[in-house]
């Protein structure tokens, strides 16, 4: 793997890390299997791209994407809590609907951002090379989002969110409306995913209706890798592990795509296979540690 490929992997790890935090919020905190993210990531990209092409400031377009993702997540939450639709099915229904909605927003399958302003332009104007500017910006934003999420999960509302996923009967007995908490939590998760999608679109120079395919797989793989390597004994550690897991996942993907064994080599079409292998290794690692414990002498 070349140095530039390594920097690219770091860049992708941080920008997709915001999406991973959203996945962590639903799957680990709320215990809510949410597939809406496959549709909310391109939703954020579509909203941001269309807003920019209509003269909206790139940073303001991120707020629009954040709001759109929150609405998508709340719809999934409402389908589950108010209409009593199974959480997995509710998220699939929203994801399917978002495919058509995203095409409607973009008035087509994609929107190009070539020649339009992006969030990276101010750093480039300061003299930083493009690849350094994007890495600096995305790492700073992802760290800020991680810090904000850790702070939120330690607030009263955040603790209610944690308790709802951990023991809904107990928190209900305390007078907390778990339906409201679930709706808000799934909305917040998808807001983060859409925010990530908006940054990805501005970085890649385009938004596409299919850019969210496999988002949930990549998000879960990053969460599992992060927990295996860095642990998850506390909320703070788990959030940091999710972000760093995203970085490790992208580095592992870049390494795999750069490896060659004679005539055989991985191609981008093997991405799902590589992801599956990474998740299997991460899931098996704790069992291996138990069988071969490390002893300090």
Structural summary, described in words:
It is a single chain. With 297 residues, the chain is mainly alpha-helical. The protein has a domain at 11-213. 75% of the residues lie in helices and 3% in strands. It is built from twelve helices and four strands; from the N terminus they run ααααβαααααβααββα. It has a two-stranded antiparallel sheet with strand order 1-2. α7 (156-166) crosses α9 (178-204) and α11 crosses α12. The radius of gyration is 19 Å and the shape is globular. The mean pLDDT is 91.
Defining key terms:
297 residues, mainly alpha, two-stranded antiparallel sheet, two-stranded antiparallel ribbon, globular
Concise overview:
The protein is mainly alpha-helical and 297 residues long. The chain has helices at 3-29, 37-53, 58-81, 87-106, 121-125, 130-153, 156-166, 168-173, 178-204, 215-230, 235-258, 271-291, and strands at residues 110-112, 206-208, 260-261, 264-265. Helices cover 75% and strands 3% of the residues.
Helix content: over 70%
Largest sheet: 2 strands, antiparallel
Order of helices and strands: HHHHEHHHHHEHHEEH
Q: What is the average per-residue confidence, as pLDDT, rounded to a whole number?
A: 91
Q: Which class best fits the helix and strand makeup?
A: mainly alpha
What proportion of the residues form beta strands (DSSP E)?
Answer: under 5%
Can you tell me the overall shape?
A: globular
Distance between the termini: 36 Å
Number of helices: 12
Uncertain stretches:
none
Radius of gyration: 19 Å
Number of strands: 4
In what order do the strands lie side by side in the largest sheet? 1-2
């Amino acid at each position: 793997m070349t140095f530039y490929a390594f920097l690219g992997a770091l860049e992708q790890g941080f920008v997709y890390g915001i999406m991973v935090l959203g996945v962590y919020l639903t799957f680990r905190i709320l215990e809510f299997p949410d597939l809406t993210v496959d549709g909310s990531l391109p939703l954020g990209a579509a909203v941001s791209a269309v807003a920019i092409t209509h003269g909206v400031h790139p940073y303001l377009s991120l707020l629009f994407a954040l709001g759109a993702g929150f609405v998508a997540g709340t719809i999934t939450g409402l389908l589950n809590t108010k209409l009593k639709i199974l959480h997995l099915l509710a998220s699939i229904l929203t994801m399917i609907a978002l495919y058509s909605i995203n095409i409607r927003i973009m008035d087509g399958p994609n929107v190009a951002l070539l020649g339009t302003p992006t969030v990276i332009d101010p750093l480039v104007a300061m003299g930083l090379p493009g690849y350094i500017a994007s890495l600096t910006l995305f790492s700073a934003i992802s760290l800020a989002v991680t810090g904000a999420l850790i702070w939120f999960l330690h607030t009263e509302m955040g603790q209610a969110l944690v308790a709802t996923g951990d023991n809904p009967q107990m928190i209900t007995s305390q007078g907390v409306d778990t339906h409201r908490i679930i709706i808000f939590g799934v909305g917040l998760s998808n807001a983060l995913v859409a925010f990530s999608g908006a940054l990805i679109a501005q970085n890649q120079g385009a938004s596409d209706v299919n850019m969210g395919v496999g988002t949930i797989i990549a998000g879960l793989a990053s969460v599992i890798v992060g927990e295996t390597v860095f642990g998850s004994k506390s909320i703070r550690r788990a959030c940091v592990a999710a972000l760093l897991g995203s970085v490790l996942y992208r580095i592992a993907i870049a390494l795999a795509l750069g490896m060659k064994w004679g005539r055989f080599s991985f191609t981008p079409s093997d991405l799902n296979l590589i992801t599956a292998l990474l998740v299997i290794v991460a899931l098996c690692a704790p069992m291996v540690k138990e069988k071969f414990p490390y002893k300090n002498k």
